[in-house]
Design a protein that fits this description.
By secondary structure, the chain is α/β, with parallel strands linked by helices. The chain is built from 13 helices and 17 strands.
Length: about 475
């Protein structure tokens, strides 16, 4: 380390002093100037550096290595050099000027950096204020706590939703506004362990001892050193959503119960009608004329159709109510089972059923999957011109996050205006005499797919044939 003394405490000395003072390999041990009001002397005094009005006094400082004359007066440099103090380097004239230029340029650079820093601080404060404004005026509840789970901040959204003023809750424990205390402790433990919890549904206490349903995302709150200093929770009021969900569930349950009850109660009288019609046809056929026989056959056909309709209605009501475990299922195995079920239909119609590619495995209810493909392929066999042989193609595409299965055929097709309604219950595009069925098959297909979080659509509008596609997650 060099011990340095400065001569001149004016503009140059006062600029050079702070720079040398901060420099790790330099120690400023003294400063001199004839003007006792010079700025540099004041700075030196504040820094604890010895000062003098006589520059010759600096020569007596022990261990002095260098004297820098920044006054521009060459006579001072000459006078110091005449003293010829061994080991002390005298820097003045051109050398001091060069040093001053370096210092001046360094100071300009520092000033520019300081201006940039000030501008960055202003921008940072603006961004901080902007973010704080967003958080404060968010419609969602935003509440922060310290590590003891005492509330630290409580935004306007929280005030509006829960009814408390922030001064009423700042400092209280978070469990005071949490309806289920044990649940709160378990959730905090999970956040401490995992870092966050997302979209957790629970209930908060409102002012006046009411309560609301919320969807909560809770995370650790950390400082600049990545130390946990508390938690931050962002919540949405989902009370109305939960109420509507409950009403929908109850409504669907009532509807399913109604369909099941009505369908079940219709079976007995229907069997009676069909039974008596069969007896009349068998035992009284010699006494009935042609019209009588025709009407009885129509009664039996109508009873048979009603029986199928009731069966399909019961099946539709069971979907979602009667479920099987979801396991890893080979779709190729499903197709082999479908072929067994539709064996005679395929043989009678001479249908060509082609499976394209090596069908994958997915996690699903295997029984419902068989039912879905059976209904789709049955439709492909059924809805075909009489002079055509059904040609059906089954395949899939791997879309990375899901599989897209398709069923193509060369059937009669569907007009574009009817595409949106083909999955509606009882919707038929043709009369029952022309093409049999109950109008429920595709409704069952759609319900099965939706229960697996998938969807189904007709891929294109064309008059000849059709192509139905469905989307399935392999991990559902």
């Amino acid at each position: 380390m060099k011990n340095v003394a400065l001569i001149g405490a004016g503009r140059g000395g006062s600029a050079l002093l702070p720079i040398l003072y901060r420099y790790p390999d330099v120690k400023v041990v003294g400063m001199a100037d004839r003007d006792n009001k010079a700025l540099g002397l004041k700075i030196a005094k504040e820094l604890g550096i010895p000062i003098t009005l006589n520059y010759m006094d600096l020569l007596s400082i022990d261990g002095l290595d260098m004297m820098i004359n920044v006054t521009g007066d060459s006579m001072i440099t000459s006078e110091l050099e005449k003293e010829d103090k061994e080991g002390i380097e005298i820097l003045g004239g051109l050398g001091a000027r060069l040093l001053w230029d370096l210092v001046y340029n360094e100071k300009k650079r520092e000033d520019k950096l300081y201006e940039k820093l000030e501008l960055a601080v202003v921008k940072l404060n603006d961004m901080k204020n902007y973010l704080e404004n967003i958080l404060e005026h968010s419609a969602d509840m935003i509440i922060t706590t310290d590590t003891n789970m005492n509330i630290v901040s409580f935004n306007q959204g929280a005030e509006k939703i829960l009814g408390y003023k922030r001064e009423e809750v700042i400092g209280i424990h978070i469990e005071e506004i949490w309806l289920y205390k044990d649940e709160q402790r378990e959730l905090i433990d999970k956040v401490i362990q995992d870092g966050d919890v997302s979209n957790y549904e629970t209930r908060f206490v409102t002012k006046g001892n009411g309560s609301i349903d919320i969807s909560l995302t809770l995370s650790q709150l950390k400082d600049d050193s990545n130390n946990v200093i508390g938690t931050v929770g962002i919540s949405k009021d989902i009370t109305e959503k939960k109420r509507l969900e409950k009403e929908l569930i109850e409504s669907n349950q009532e509807l399913e119960n109604f369909v099941y009850t009505v369908s079940h109660d219709l079976k007995a009288p229907l069997r009676t009608i069909d039974g008596f019609a069969a007896i009349l046809l068998d035992e009284y056929k010699d006494k009935l004329d042609k019209d009588g026989m025709h009407y009885l056959n129509r009664i039996r056909n109508a009873a048979s159709h009603m029986g199928r309709l009731i069966r399909d209605l019961l099946e539709l009501s069971r979907i979602g109510k009667v479920t099987n475990p979801h396991t890893n299922v080979s779709v190729l195995d499903v197709m082999n089972r479908v072929k067994e079920i539709l064996r005679y239909n395929l043989e009678d119609s001479k249908a060509e059923l082609n499976i394209i590619g090596n069908l994958p495995s997915i996690r699903c209810d295997k029984v419902r999957m068989v039912q879905m493909f059976t209904n789709l392929i049955s439709n492909a066999i059924k809805f075909i011109d009489k002079d055509k042989t059904p040609k059906i193609e089954i395949g899939y595409k791997n879309k990375k996050t899901y599989y897209e299965f398709y069923v193509k055929d060369n059937g009669i097709g569907i007009e574009g205006e009817y595409i949106s309604s083909i999955y509606d219950i009882f919707h038929r595009l043709h009369n029952a005499e022309e093409y049999g069925g109950t109008g429920i098959g595709l409704t069952i297909v759609k319900r099965i797919i939706e229960l697996h979080n998938g969807n189904i659509w007709r891929s294109e509008e064309r008059r000849v044939g059709k192509e139905c596609r469905s989307r399935w997650s392999p991990y559902h």
